[in-house]
Amino acid sequence: MAGKMARLAKDTAIYGISSIVGRFLNYLLVPVHTHFIDPKSGGYGIVSNLYAYAALIFVLLTFGMETTFFRFASKEGEDENMVYSTALRMVGAVALVFIALVLAFLGPISDFMGYPTHPEYIACFAIIGGLDAFQAIMFGRLRQQHRPVKFMILKMAFIIPNVILNVAVFWLLPKMFNVMPSLQNFYESFDYGVGLIFFVNLLCTFLVTFGFLKELKGITYGFDWKLCRRMLSYAWPILLLGLVGILNQVFDKMAYPKLVPGQEGQVQLGIYGACVKIAMILSLLTQAFRYAYEPFVFGGAKDKDSADTLAQGMKYFIIFGLLAFLAVMFYLPIFRYLVTNHEYWVGLDVVPIVMMAELFMGIYFNLSFWYKLADKTWWGAVMSGTGAAVMIAVNVLFVPEYGYMACAWGGFAGYAVCMLMSYFIGRRYSDIQYPMKDIAVYVLLAAVLYAVYLVCRALPVWAALTANTVLIAIYIAYILKKDLPLSSLPVIGRKFAKKQ
């Protein structure tokens, strides 16, 4: 058990570095965009809206093949090369058909989405979606082969040029207007640079494909029709699960311009989208954990102690998820400067709500393995569908009156329903014994510390930050005393043992 948890921790650390460094570099775009994009223009609302559609497109075009690939590649008697090639060909074919259909009906689709004067934005995202889906299977191959270093390098190969080119679009390009006046007309025709963000994304996504030359050769391993049918049978409930799951995340941003029409809707969506970026810090932990955890769990599904591994994995995810929540909230007076234009700060009240929704989502992901390992993926579709229905209902009913605060509470309610359903239904079908007493103590401790933080907010900023530092230190001290004693930590543990 200790060896497995150590390997999981190592892979999570590497994936975490790529996620954290990558997300940090992407976060550099938040101050860039919020500095140069006037909140009253609604430009950041366009960014939030179209990237929400992009997330939905990605789920549609991968149609559950990432998880399906892991499941079948780890099964006894399956040729993992054939599984990989079959998955890669299926996703590639679907992506090509999707791109062709969007380009064929580009006008009507652009009109429906609210961008009749910019169909090129929609075409851009169609191609990005196809490339992202195809690359997802190759990234999955790297995870399945436990090659996190190359995974990290290729992620950085997208993120770093993307950040540099975005800075060039908003800072360097306008400086050239005096030399090239025609460039200003070009710039303004793309919503004052907002539209160029999407073309930069397309360019960087395309360039990353060249880093997969070795993985692309896997498409030559062949295609097995019988295997294809079995994989699709396993994947379709995951597709439904993924669809309702992503709707939980992006429906608010997709529907907001329809629920609050006109310029005001785009302005409010921009404020909400900018502030949500701060809350997404918690998703770093979930994403890094997922990248390492899926192949780890599926690879050891037949081990006798797999149930204990899942139980301990859940416990540690919650411990560090609560730590991330407290850290962001306690230091929000610092984190808010990620959003450089203070006019966006009116939306900061959504941060704790969205962060708790993210924590619920992460717990739900951890709970999901009981039905994935039992090949009962339809349960995931049922639970996620129920959660999505709750979230959509909250948005449709309350957004017109309460604005983006209703978006935040909609996600909170939707993921809470998914999490609770998965836990209570899973108790009937799974023998996983989660350490609920230990988890409850951490939740109670975090709640008490958060309540003290709310009281301390009335203090001057320097005093509040000092008090919050003490509060976070109390939580960390409890972790070290209860579950991660210093003697168990690498390097530090050896030094600690010598002192003893």
Count every helix, treating DSSP H or I runs of 4 or more residues as helices: 23
- Fraction of residues in H or I helices: over 70%
Detail the poorly predicted runs.
Answer: 489-493
Report the C-alpha radius of gyration, rounded. 23 Å
Q: What's the overall geometry? A: globular
Alpha-carbon distance between the two ends: 26 Å
Q: DSSP strand (E) fraction?
A: under 5%
Element-level helix/strand string: HHHHHHHHHHHHHHHHHHHHHHH
Offer a quick outline of the entry:
The protein is mainly alpha-helical. Helices cover 80% and strands 0% of the residues.
List the helices and strands and how they pair.
Blueprint: H1 2-27, H2 29-36, H3 43-62, H4 65-73, H5 80-104, H6 106-113, H7 119-144, H8 148-172, H9 181-189, H10 194-208, H11 213-216, H12 225-259, H13 263-279, H14 281-299, H15 306-330, H16 332-335, H17 350-367, H18 369-373, H19 378-402, H20 404-429, H21 436-456, H22 461-482, H23 492-499
Descriptive account of the structure:
- By secondary structure, this protein is an all-alpha fold.
- 80% of the residues lie in helices and 0% in strands.
- It has helices at residues 2-27, 29-36, 43-62, 65-73, 80-104, 106-113, 119-144, 148-172, 181-189, 194-208, 213-216, 225-259, 263-279, 281-299, 306-330, 332-335, 350-367, 369-373, 378-402, 404-429, 436-456, 461-482, 492-499.
- Mean pLDDT is 83; it is low at 489-493.
